[in-house]
Amino acid sequence: MATEDITSSIQANALRQPPKWGPRKKRKLSLISSYIARASLGRTVFALCNYPSLLTNGILRLEQMEEIPLEDFSAEERREHRVFEHLLDSYPGLLERLMNGSEEEILHVGEIIGKGASGARGDDTKSLKSATLDWISPKGAAIQPPLHRNSKIDRGFNHKLTGSLLCPAGLDWNDAETRENLRSGEISVCGDQWPVFLYANYIYDAEDPWCGLLRSRLLTCAYKHVFTSPSSVDKDPKATRSGNARLHGMNCVTTASIAYIATQVRFSLSSSSVFSQTDTSTDSETFYHSLLNLFEDPDESKEVAELLIWWNCQVFPTSSAAKRPISINSALSKIRIKCLATKNAADSNVAIASS
Question: CA-to-CA distance for 138 and 106, rounded, in angstroms?
């Protein structure tokens, strides 16, 4: 469901149960607004969001949750509310200020946050447009035919290199008919048809779709470029926090930040000149949400946990989030197993004695 549909459905509920705005006060929210604007929430939590609606709906939903548990809301509404709660957790006192502010002031705060997120996204889009070409260039050779750094008209399926990377997993770019149909639009590519560049070494295994998924070097280069620093792309990470990661207070990778980078790289490879979540040709919103849906699927929790460990090893190797599970045959694992067995035996004896 599109973000606009999510917010409109919640606003429809608002007609039946209008929010109880606090008394209008002279105190403005400009200070907290400017503080939040610097957070660039979209990179790490939720990229494609209508922030004025997020705040308005969040306050409304808090009132509704006095009678309705969060679990009874739709998946999209629950996701939006998690973003709202993350915002409140990040800025102590924000909820009180929002509850005591006027509706106009709350919408103003949302607009300021939205401008900050949009500005950060625009900066990333601009810098990745050129940098991506360096990462996809053949080693020791130039891209042929050449791709322009300041124009994207010859990218996408119009070029053999970007086309091969954007080709949906499962399709054969080497097949002449497939290439022509992708270029002409005869084959329409939806956002949930993931491109092969998401996979390690750009190899997709139809028998094991999780194999190598979201582990390509292109993605890690783009992630480091945005979150650590452009100069860190070709270097081994030595610190847990630097660059934008330091500004965000990050010391581990989030699933939303992976989806954000994948969406940015996909757009940089495309021939579209302007990033828009409603652009039907790139279908960026569907693509971004399809990745979030995968990450939030309880049935995929094991694979997602392993993916995050892998990513943290690439970006924040000294972080506790990058620590791998204890090796099965190690001395430490045997000590842990013996300790657990002793504890279970002791618990069993207590249970027998008390029966």
Answer: 50
pTM for the complete prediction? 0.76
| Of 2, 11, 106, nearest in space to 64 by CA | 11
SS3 string of 210-265? CCCECCCHHHHHHHHHHHCCHHHCCCCCCCCCCHHHHHHCCCCCCHHHHHHHHHHH
CA angle 141-143-146, nearest 5°? 135
Pick the closest to residue 135 from 153, 161, 174 (CA basis).
161
Q: Output the CA angle 87-277-264, nearest 5 degrees.
A: 80
**Residues 310, 302: contact at Cβ < 8 Å?**
no
How close are the terminal C-alpha atoms of the chain, in Å? 55
* Residue 25, beta-bridge partner list: none
Identify whether the C-beta of residue 266 lies closer than 8 Å to the C-beta of residue 287: yes
- The answer for residues whose C-beta is within 8 angstroms of residue 187's C-beta and 6 or more apart is 171, 178, 181
Beta bridge partners of 168: 195
Kindly tell me the number of DSSP H helices and DSSP E strands found in the chain.
Answer: 15, 0
User: Which pLDDT band holds residue 281 (cuts at 50, 70, 90)?
Assistant: confident
pLDDT band at 11 (very low <50, low <70, confident <90, very high): very low
| Distance (Å) of CA 183 to CA 154, 158, 171, 178, 273 | 11, 6, 13, 9, 17
Q: Rounded to an integer, what distance in angstroms lies between the CA atom of residue 144 and that of residue 125?
A: 23
pLDDT digits (tens, 9 = 90+) for 16-43: 343 443 444 444 444 444 444 444 577 8
